[in-house]
Predict the 3D structure of the following.
Amino acid sequence: MILIDEPMSKHTTFGVGGPADVYIAPSSTEELAQVVKACRKLGVPYFILGRGSDLLVSDAGYRGVMIATEGLAGMEADGCDLVCESGVTLKDAAYKACELGLAGLEFASGIPGSVGGACFMNAGAYDGCMADVLLSVDVLTPEGAVQTLGVDELELGYRASRIRNEGLVVLKARMRLTPGDSQGIREKIEDLTRRREEKQPLEYGSAGSTFKRPEGYFAGKLIMDSGLKGYTVGGASVSQKHAGFVINKGNATASDVRAVIAHVQDEVERQFGVRLETEVLFIGW
Ligand SMILES: Cc1cc2nc3c(=O)[nH]c(=O)nc-3n(C[C@H](O)[C@H](O)[C@H](O)COP(=O)(O)OP(=O)(O)OC[C@H]3O[C@@H](n4cnc5c(N)ncnc54)[C@H](O)[C@@H]3O)c2cc1C
């Protein structure tokens, strides 16, 4: 699929963001590699888009090619391993594992990202993160080579990875899970889903926790203690339900969201001397 001037508000969970010049969703990992190669050959900027669940794309949009992994949705079981193409959603992967009676991916079932984005971020929640389940990933290097990297070679840390540092593109990931019983796995997924629904403002657009957890603190608590719950610019607010989330109340622009983020950073620093760093990535600013 190739689209021109495609609004990024349609492809991000914040529901904001202007047009990408070109939006391409390859239907195979080989095609994805070819698109990356073509962009590099022509010197055209490109960006690998997962599910857009950790991105704030500017109102002006993105000048270049958005290469979306949404079409790379292949998934297969191999003994206790689940092998997923990078565009598979974590939810689909977690439910597939459950159906196969494989435990370990329950933590990921409520993270609205793709397997590729989760490897990039070492996404995690509750009692798990990608580093706990990944065995290896197939990546495309900036030079165009395909390599298999073991989990120990990925330098996974808190929202950190070699994939992120070196501009690698995840093509496939192999996760090693453990035999379990489907019923128990499903109950755990349902329990985690309930806990998310209770605590998080899932009825609004957002990118989840806007800020990284600062050493020794909780971002949400600092924001709440700064009196910023409900702080609003245009259509963007600090959530009343969970102060760590900046939400789109329906008609926000990317600039509104950015203004809320900047005010929160300044105000928390003024009151507590802690500068919050964003987990959300800014694209096209
Ligand atoms: C309601 C909500 C709840 C959330 N809860 C959590 C949570 O509990 N834990 C958590 O960790 N995160 C959470 N998030 C944030 C987000 O879902 C994760 O960071 C997720 O891993 C991002 O994946 P994505 O596919 O959406 O990536 P995107 O947002 O599309 O991209 C993020 C980065 O990953 C890169 N990327 C994407 N795919 C690839 C690939 N194939 N190869 C190389 N790089 C790639 C992109 O280039 C970009 O730099 C939440 C978000 C929301 C909206």
About this structure: Helices lie at 29-42, 90-99, 115-121, 130-133, 162-166, 182-199, 219-225, 254-272. Residues 13, 47-55, 69, 86, 111-114, 116-118, 120-121, 123-125, 163, 169-170, 200, 202, 206-208, 281 surround flavin-adenine dinucleotide (CB under 6 Å).
